[in-house]
Automatic annotation (TrEMBL):
Source organism of this protein record: Streptomyces bambusae
Name by which UniProt lists this protein: Aminotransferase class I/II-fold pyridoxal phosphate-dependent enzyme
HTH gntR-type domain span: 29-97
PROSITE patterns per record: HTH_GNTR
Domain of life assignment: Bacteria
Keyword Transferase: yes
InterPro entries for the chain: Aminotransferase_I/II_large, HTH_trans_reg/aminotransferase, PyrdxlP-dep_Trfase, PyrdxlP-dep_Trfase_major, PyrdxlP-dep_Trfase_small, Tscrpt_reg_HTH_GntR, WH-like_DNA-bd_sf, WH_DNA-bd_sf
Upper classification of the organism: Bacteria, Bacillati, Actinomycetota, Actinomycetes, Kitasatosporales
């Protein structure tokens, strides 16, 4: 059986193993049986392979916040089914006979942080409130625009061949007008339409990054986009934030030391901190990037729903020169199911991106683009009402948190729809997330959102839910906090500072 072991492969570490187990504690039956089944699924899928060592019983029990007896019983069951074996001095490992006939399957990004969030999007566990999403349901404006599009635009659309790799001309014109109104003069030829903001980031990474390259990113940031940069072969270097945006002193030092190929920033409604980068800070970023010859990728996916003047002009509006790509999206402004994003860039860069887009999918769906072209000009008029709803939902969740979790601390966000919450007493947010999952809440630990692994006592908490869902969420978070406190014993009650 030893011949089936891949000696060049690194077995999953403890945190990666727990991500593979996913929502293991849901379902029926004893807790040890649910853990047994989850490890068995990882073996049969090929995510755990012959010879992979499993953590010690005590270490896994501590990491999952369960009793050691639960893990002991699970390992016994795995050995009994032939999926694991224990060797003196070597611990417990995946049995060779259990997977000798299988080809390894591994679609995960090594070192990726968004794996568990993406997996739960696929599996959609019942009755789970996921904090991995901060999107709102579509409103009546979406329905009206869709009906108008079908009635007025559909005949002309279906007579078209349907292939527009750079985007539907009407949508490119609408995006150009949108940026112009928000302080960034733009021509349609400077726009390429993408299937969501994630594809926009991926195409940009494909164009400017490669194996062994370096990208500077904010610490913290959104793990899905950080994983996209990693998947392009890039090494990520984190730069910290303050209340004004990315710190200029640390950015200047990182540019000089690491000579990166790309600088990825989220200056408007930063995810997860809610920081709004000031106009002066944006200007200095543009100047530093131009000085060092670094491409700037500014992710403004959360900015489309803002009215003109609610945020400073994009970094690309700076006269400093250099190459700046601006990413936009309708997912946060309209509806997460409308997978329309874009990149605004110099025309020669747009031509190269359009070629990559054509190789990827020959162009985003035309009907979606036609709907987006109708919606984009209406967003400034809708912005006040959407802002009112967000204020009400922010007030709701902060009131409930103050009532049920008074030791949790956060700073009021300047934009967006998430709170960046610090847990008291230096609590490991990964451990809390594992307990919260058993109470029906998917929490995103801060360390998974930081390329440096810092912020390990923070969690990201969206407030985009309807009030009844928010109430249920806070109840689950409070129950999980109480359960963790009981299992960990007395913990620090001092107030945690931002």
């Amino acid at each position: 059986m030893e011949g089936n072991v891949d000696r060049n492969r690194q077995a999953p570490g403890l945190d990666e193993l727990i991500d593979l187990l996913g929502d293991w504690s849901s379902g029926e039956g004893p807790l040890y049986r649910r853990l047994t089944d989850a490890v068995g699924r990882a073996v049969r899928s090929g995510d755990l392979r012959t010879g992979d060592r499993l953590p010690s019983e005590r270490r896994l029990a501590d990491a999952l916040s369960v009793s050691r007896a639960t893990v002991v019983a699970a390992y016994d069951a795995l050995r009994g089914s032939g999926l694991a074996e224990t060797r003196r001095g070597s611990g417990t490992q995946v049995s060779g006979g259990a997977v000798a006939h299988r080809l390894p399957v591994d679609g995960r990004v090594r070192g990726g942080q968004a794996t568990a969030v993406v997996q739960r999007l696929i599996t959609q566990p019942p009755d789970l409130i996921s904090l991995g999403q901060a999107a709102e349901a579509g409103g009546p404006d979406l329905t009206r625009a869709l009906l108008d599009m079908v009635r007025e635009d559909l005949p002309g659309l279906i007579s078209d061949a349907g292939y527009h790799p750079a985007g539907l001309p009407a949508l490119r014109e609408a995006i150009a007008a949108h940026h112009t109104v928000h302080g960034l003069p733009t021509e349609p030829g400077q726009v390429v339409v993408t299937t969501g903001a994630t594809q926009a980031v991926a195409l940009s990474a494909q164009l400017f990054l490669g194996r062994g390259s370096t990208a500077l990113v904010e610490s913290p940031g959104w793990p899905g986009c950080l994983d996209v940069l990693r998947a392009a072969g890039s090494r990520l270097v984190g730069v910290p934030l303050d209340s004004d945006g990315v710190r200029i002193d640390r950015l200047a030092a990182a540019l000089a030391e690491h000579r990166p190929a790309l600088l990825y920033l989220m200056p408007t409604c930063h995810n997860p901190t809610g920081v709004l980068m000031s106009a002066g800070r944006r200007r200095r970023v543009a100047e530093l990037a131009a000085e060092h010859g670094v491409i700037v990728l500014e992710d403004s996916a959360h900015a489309a729903g803002l009215a003109p003047g609610q945020a400073p002009p994009p970094i690309a509006a700076s006269p400093a020169g250099g190459t700046v790509l601006t990413v936009g999206s309708l997912a946060k402004a309209v509806w997460g199911g409308l997978r329309i994003g874009w990149i605004r860039a110099p025309q020669d860069t747009v031509a190269r991106l359009a070629r990559l887009k054509a190789l990827d999918d020959l162009g985003s769906p035309l009907l979606d683009q036609a709907l987006a072209a109708r919606l984009l000009p209406t967003l400034p008029a809708l912005a006040p009402e959407r802002a009112r709803i967000r204020r009400e939902r922010l007030a709701t969740i902060t009131r409930l948190l103050a009532e049920h979790l008074p030791d949790w601390r956060w700073q009021a966000p300047q934009g967006g729809s998430v709170l960046w919450v610090q847990l008291p007493g230096g609590t490991d947010a990964r451990l809390y997330a594992r307990v919260a999952l058993r109470h029906g809440a998917e929490v995103i630990p801060g360390a998974t959102m930081d390329a440096t692994g810092a912020h390990d006592d923070y969690v990201r908490l969206p407030f985009s839910f309807a009030p009844e869902t928010t109430a249920a969420l806070v109840d689950r978070l409070a129950a999980a906090w109480a359960a963790l406190s009981r299992s960990a014993g007395p913990r620090c009650a001092t107030t945690c500072q931002w």
